[in-house]
Amino acid sequence: MKLNVEGIEEGKPVPEKFAFGVYHPEDHMSFGPNRNPEMSWEGAPEGTKSFVVMMFDPDVPSIADDANQEGKTISKDIPRVDFFHWLLVDIPASVSRIPEGEDSDGVTPKGKEGGPGPVGVRGVNNFTQFLAGNPDMAGTYSGYDGPCPPWNDEIVHHYHYEVHALDVESLELSGEFDGEAVRNAMAGHVLASARVTGTYTLNPDLR
Predict the structure, then answer these.
(1) From the centroid of its chain, how far is CA 29?
(2) What gap in Å lies between CA 136 and CA 109, rounded to an integer?
(3) Which domains does the chain possess?
(4) Which residues cross the membrane (predicted)?
(5) How far apart are CA 57 and CA 42, in angstroms?
(6) Which of 23, 92, 145, 166 has the fewest beta carbons under 10 Å from its own?
(7) Which residues 6+ apart lie within 8 Å of 123 measured at CB?
(8) What is the DSSP string of 183-202?
């Protein structure tokens, strides 16, 4: 399979129009356009019955106490975990393109609705946990929400945009399912996968 993520080149920075947070010289970060990029794919194997699209950041600090705190930095030596930004399941086998802005066009305080979206069924992303302590933003975040790494992190974050061709029409997931649930449900059903990786940072010393 081959995946194209329009505007994102392998190993190059993700454009700000796809980001949840963009660099701000005084406030460190402000909300970005938060549009999902156009994704298109080809070469799905025979027997494909549905697709899963996901985007995740494997570089999120496992201990986030110092995230975005004045006078502190997040050490590059802290263990890192996956942070899911986009989960779409049960995308019909007839679909091979998600247009830019179709699943997200702007930051939605308290999150977009889960369940069936414009394309496929939306899972819950990890902004749900990250913003849980913010009374203005706390909620359940579904569908696409783009890069917004801590502005005081010592490392540049990587963003894996993936598509997976499956041999089942549905993963039979419902309710507020997350990235781990999707991975568990996909296990043993993946016929082929493709990935494009971009990078992003809000740390002015790394930009």
Answers:
(1) 18
(2) 7
(3) 2-200 (3.90.280.10)
(4) none
(5) 24
(6) 92
(7) 84, 87, 88, 89, 114, 142, 173, 177, 178, 179, 181, 182
(8) HHHHTT-EEEEEEEEEEE--
**Which residues have C-beta within 8 Å of that of residue 57, sequence separation ≥ 6?**
82, 83, 85, 147, 149, 157, 158, 159, 160
Q: Which two tokens stand for residue 163?
A: 């598509």
Cα distances (angstroms) measured from residue 190 to each of 28, 170, 186 = 40, 12, 6
CA dist 59 and 80 (Å) reads 5
Tally: H helices and E strands in the chain: 2, 11
pLDDT digits (tens, 9 = 90+) for 10-27: 999 999 999 999 999 999
Q: What is 112-168 written as a DSSP string?
A: ---EE-SSSEE-B-THHHHTTT-TTT-S--BS-------TTBSS-EEEEEEEEEESS
Tens-digit pLDDT profile for residues 114-134: 999 999 999 999 999 999 999
Please give the angle made by the CA atoms of 28, 34 and 52, to the nearest 5 degrees.
Answer: 130
Q: Is 35 helix (H, G, I), strand (E, B) or coil?
A: strand
Structural element, H or E, at residue 181: helix 179-186
- Asked if pLDDT for residue 65 goes beyond 90, the answer is no
Beta bridge partners of 42: 2
d(CA 13, CA 109): 25
Quick one: tokens of 100?
């830019």
- Pick the range with the lowest mean pLDDT from 62-66, 96-100, 110-114, 172-176: 62-66
Could you identify the residue written with the tokens 């899972």?
A: 123
